[in-house]
Specification:
With about 500 residues, the protein is α/β, with parallel strands linked by helices. The chain is built from 15 helices and 20 strands. Bound molecules: ligand BES, manganese (II) ion and zinc ion. The site of manganese (II) ion (MN) has 4 residues, from loops.
């Protein structure tokens, strides 16, 4: 989608749809919209007065204008005290979803000055683009059906002359963020028979070519040479060959990189410890961490921030077969620790163990992994927060702050030693499941066994990577979780 910032009075914007984001109106039109209300013959004032439109979150009211914008749509953001980047992003997404409903090809957006709270113009520009592109996202590449509404092709941000440069600066960040977010969602949406480990490698190669990233892709025999016994133990059951992908963005000379690791299980059947059939198709989303890393690199390629970033993606299927790893098998990891595989469905932590161990060679400033790691995190936090764990309180605070800016809330879980005990094995250094109690934390502790000498944060995105119902600001399906958080984190570090 194309996005621009335009300086023009609201009542004169030539657009099929002008979305005006407002907070609680309390029965009257704010001063900055009086000229627009004049165009509508006072209809906006009457809708406010009668309480037909109050400005409540996620509500809209549409007016038809005799000239200028064809439609004027008020979009409610809620109370002024709740105004934030998140509220504006959400309002923009709601507006875009409505725009799809009208079948218009472009939308103009404006956040009324009276309702901006403390959100600065640059942030407004950024989240308007993020929101509109999130709301306009549709995945239709696997359908021939013609009854769908046409896509939204362009958006304009309507500005005053003074705020234009700031809005434009934010717009370009938002645009990079949004196309990375879109790539992640598209990859997530693809089924396991299309989005294979080699497919993820192909996307990484395309990013490398488009933006000049250094790339390295290991096949199974190279992984063997590397000693990645944990990853290979998961891959054994499948005829689809695994891939171990690294991408490098060099934005600064000789400085320790941020390492991003993404779980790339392109389908998780559970392996020999097979999952129940119900909803098993959702396990195509088990590469959502990998999608977040690839989406982040798309945005990095656009933004080219002055900082080094390494992306690491261990990718494989997890299937049962005559060659598959069996419960009770013991394997040797890349770090050297032996692992008793008591449950082949606890495969994510196996492939991440080798990836975290591999990350050492980059001498990282920090490592953050994103993984749809445990069903237990959905029990603990539902679909409203990422489970956050790690070994460095300062890093965790920084990740959490990035999540707040990104609209991706993280909630910390404790990593007391007692949880670590649950992973003790009778015959190996560690076993890959600590049982049901505290399942997300014992999974986190398993990863921590393979973190050697760097600050590390773990994001359990199993509850947030996809949604099984349509929401006003987000359609059913993949959510692109992780991309915005990663970018905000990176931009925060680049600013210093
Ligand atoms: N990919 C799943 C976790 C998951 C569950 C993601 C639900 C999204 C939605 C992971 O590989 C898994 O199977 N975890 C097991 C671990 C258990 C066997 C210790 C789980 O959560 O049940
Ligand atoms: Mn599993
Ligand atoms: Zn999994």
């Amino acid at each position: 989608m194309n996005s621009t910032v335009k300086v023009v009075p609201l009542e004169r914007v030539p657009t099929p749809l002008l979305a005006v984001l407002v907070g609680a109106l309390n029965g009257k039109v704010p001063t900055s919209l009086l000229a627009l209300d004049d165009l509508l013959g006072g209809a906006m004032g009457r809708a406010a007065e009668h309480g037909d439109f109050t400005g409540e979150r996620d509500t809209v009211h549409v007016f038809y204008a005799p000239r200028g914008p064809r439609r004027v749509m008020l979009v409610g953001l809620g109370k002024l005290i709740e105004m934030s980047r998140g509220a504006v992003r959400r309002g923009a997404a709601v507006a875009a979803r409505r725009a799809l409903g009208f079948g218009v090809e472009s939308i103009a957006c404006h956040v009324t000055h009276e309702f901006r709270g403390g959100v600065a113009p640059a942030a407004i520009g950024q989240v308007l683009v993020e929101g509109v592109m999130q709301g306009a996202w549709q995945f239709r590449s696997l359908q021939v059906a013609t009854d769908r509404k046409p896509p939204l092709k362009s958006m304009e941000i309507i500005a005053t002359r003074e705020e234009r440069p700031d809005l434009e600066r934010g717009r370009s960040i938002g645009h990079a963020m949004a196309i990375g977010h879109k790539l992640a969602r598209n990859l997530q949406a693809l089924p396991g028979n299309i989005c294979t480990p080699e497919y993820l490698a192909t996307i990484a190669r395309q990013l490398s070519k488009a933006y000049g990233f250094k790339i390295n892709v290991l096949n199974a025999s190279l992984m063997e040479k590397e000693g990645m016994g944990a990853l290979l133990a998961v891959a054994r059951g499948s005829t689809e060959e695994p891939r171990f992908i690294t991408l490098e963005h060099k934005g600064a000379a000789r400085s320790a990189p941020i390492c991003l690791v993404g779980k790339g299980i392109t389908f998780d059947s559970g392996g020999i410890s097979i999952k129940p059939a119900d909803k098993m198709e959702e396990m195509k989303y088990d590469m959502s961490g990998a999608a977040a890393v690839l989406g982040t690199f798309e945005a990095l390629g656009q933004l080219k921030p002055p900082i080094n970033v390494v992306g690491i993606i261990p990718a494989t299927e997890n299937l049962p077969s005559g060659t598959a790893t069996k419960p009770g098998d013991v394997v040797r990891s890349h770090l050297g620790k032996s692992i008793e595989v008591v449950n082949t469905d606890a495969e994510g932590r196996m492939i991440l163990a080798d990836a975290l161990s591999y990350a050492r060679r980059f001498k990282p400033a920090c490592v953050i992994d994103a993984a749809t790691l445990t069903g237990a995190i959905v029990v603990a936090l539902g679909n409203h927060a990422i489970g956050l764990m790690g070994n460095d309180d300062q890093l965790l605070a920084e990740v959490r702050q990035a999540g707040e800016l990104a609209g991706e809330r993280c909630w910390p879980l404790p990593m007391w030693d007692e949880y670590r005990e649950q992973n003790r094995s009778d015959i190996a250094d560690v076993k890959n499941s600590g049982g049901r109690p505290g399942g997300s934390i014992t999974a986190g502790w398993f990863l921590r066994e393979f973190v050697d000498g760097f600050p590390w944060a773990h994001l359990d995105i199993a509850g947030t990577a996809y949604t099984d119902r349509d929401q006003p600001q987000l359609s059913k399906g993949p959510t692109g979780t992780g991309v915005r958080l990663f970018i905000e984190f990176i931009l925060g570090r680049a600013r210093g």
